[in-house]
Amino acid sequence: MSKLSVLLTGAGGYIAQQLLPVFRERYDLRLVDLTRERDGAALEGVETADLLRDDPETLVPLFSGVDVVVHTGYHRPTGTDPQSLYDGERLNIDMMQRVYGLALEQGVRRVVAASTNQAAKWYEQPYFAGLRDRVDSEDYPRPDSFYGWAKAAYESLGFLYACGSLGRKLEVVQLRIVAPREIDAGEFVDLPRHRYVRDLAGYISDRDLQQLFYKSVETPEIEDEYGVPFHIFYGVSNNARTFWSITNARKVIGYRPVDDSEVRFAADIAKLLNG
User: Fold this and answer.
1) Strands 37-38, 41-42: parallel, antiparallel or unpaired by DSSP?
2) pLDDT (tens digit, 9 = 90+) per residue, 81-104?
3) Which Pfam family name is an example for this entry (predicted)?
């Protein structure tokens, strides 16, 4: 069986670097980023392109003949004031629109995009107040930052492309990644304990993150009950302390996370939470 052709954007970024070991084995890869270097080291096989500013015609060859686009590209805002944050994140929405548009035009079957729990992060407030036990992808987006707002915009824009109102249905999966990193308890010693618990609940290991992405890429049929090939999945491991629901990811793509922060960080939890 021939390998799927996958275009990975933002190939030098943090999430892409976690995916590449598995992606290189499973797919016929095209890699694109603004630069061929990361932390001073050369990035193997990366083509340079600016998905935001390059002429669309120069980007067509990247998307032509591709089965799936995995979009992890990100433009980091340069300022910290509200207007700068808004302007910077608005550029990310424009870049996402370009990815969707080129994918639709060039016959790409599916776009899998790195979103974030911050598209609905406000729900953490009632959770830690004991007023809510769980949030899932069907809950109304409630971002509390411009970063989260932009990701929520990615998602609703993706539904527009998936529902068929622009012609054919472009399959779209948005992955709301929570805490894709090892958790250093030492960073939480002087912070309220719920900050540590939050990261334990949202932890996703490298191998679970890789599984979530490759199953989002490879699952053949992802239409929902209305015939729309669109889903939002939360990116967390099989954590005992959980807030973000992965029920739909288990059902639709067969996501079976194997790691649990309660086990992975048991010694740290005993020290920091239990004294």
Assistant:
1) antiparallel
2) 999 999 999 999 999 999 999 999
3) Epimerase
pLDDT, tens digit, 9 for 90 and up, residues 184-240: 988 998 888 888 888 999 999 999 999 999 999 999 999 999 999 999 999 999 999
Given a contact cutoff of 8 angstroms between Cβ atoms, the answer to whether 148 and 120 are in contact is yes
Q: How far apart are the first and last CA of the chain?
A: 54
Structure tokens at 43: 């990035």
Whole-angstrom Cα Rg for the chain: 19
Q: Cβ contacts of residue 69 below 8 Å, gap of 6+?
A: 6, 7, 9, 63, 99, 103, 108, 110, 111, 112
| Cα–Cα nearest to 29, from 58, 1, 61, 70 | 70
Of 150, 56, 158, nearest to 98 by C-alpha is 56
DSSP state at residue 70:
E
Q: Which of 49, 64, 52, 148 is nearest to 99 (CA)?
A: 52
Give me the residue spans of the domains in the chain.
5-272
Look up residue 102 and give its amino acid. L
User: Residue 174 — φ and ψ, nearest 5°?
Assistant: -115, 130
Per DSSP, the three-state class of 189 is: coil
CATH fold, domain 5-272, is Rossmann fold (3.40.50)
- pTM for the whole structure: 0.94
Q: Are the CB atoms for 221 and 33 separated by under 8 Å?
A: no
Sequential DSSP letters for 137-178: TTSPP--SSHHHHHHHHHHHHHHHHHTTTTSSPPEEEEEEE-
> Is 193 buried (19+), middle (13-18) or exposed (0-12) by CB count in 10 A?
exposed
Instruction: Find how far residue 202's CA is from the centre of its chain.
Output: 13
